Amino acid sequence: MSSFLVISLLFGLTLGQTASLCAPSKYTIHVEKKECAYCLAINTTICAGFCMTRDSNGKKLLLKSALSQNVCTYKDMLYQTALIPGCPRHTIPYYSYPVAVSCKCGKCNTDYSDCVHEKVRTNYCTKPQKLCNM
Fold first, then answer.
1. Tens of pLDDT, residue by residue, the chain (134 residues)
2. In the chain, how many domains are there?
3. C-alpha to C-alpha distance for 50 and 73, rounded to whole angstroms
4. From CA 48, how far away is CA 133, in angstroms rounded?
5. Sign, Cα dihedral of 98, 103, 54, 16
6. Which residue from 9, 59, 76, 132 has the highest number of Cβ atoms inside 10 Å of its Cβ?
7. Hey, what's the signal peptide range on this chain (predicted)?
8. What's the rounded Cα separation, in Å, for the pair 114 and 85?
């Protein structure tokens, strides 16, 4: 019975490393420009979920490369462009945004990702809202 327990534990640890629950997730972005009459609510996908990471408590004993904190980030993405309604002629009415196609656990790349979790909710509209399903 003890060998079954050990095998089950090893299987669970292996599965936990591979099934990290990092996947594309539905998300709504609210976009507005002060010159335009409406706020645009865009339904898209972002990368979200749990990734296994290393404990950095022993940081004085480990190499710097061993201290990486993995995050759920984009593996493949594409950009789409939406038209913000109610903009005057002199304003560029387009907004481009990323769409997550697939995700991975890895280091956060600040070239295309926001690597900080904000506590203040800033994703809302202050103007009348239009919905854009992409």
1. 565 544 554 455 454 445 558 999 999 888 888 899 988 889 999 999 988 776 556 556 666 555 567 888 889 999 999 999 899 999 999 999 999 999 999 877 777 666 666 555 566 777 777 666 55
2. 1
3. 10
4. 20
5. positive
6. 132
7. 1-16
8. 27
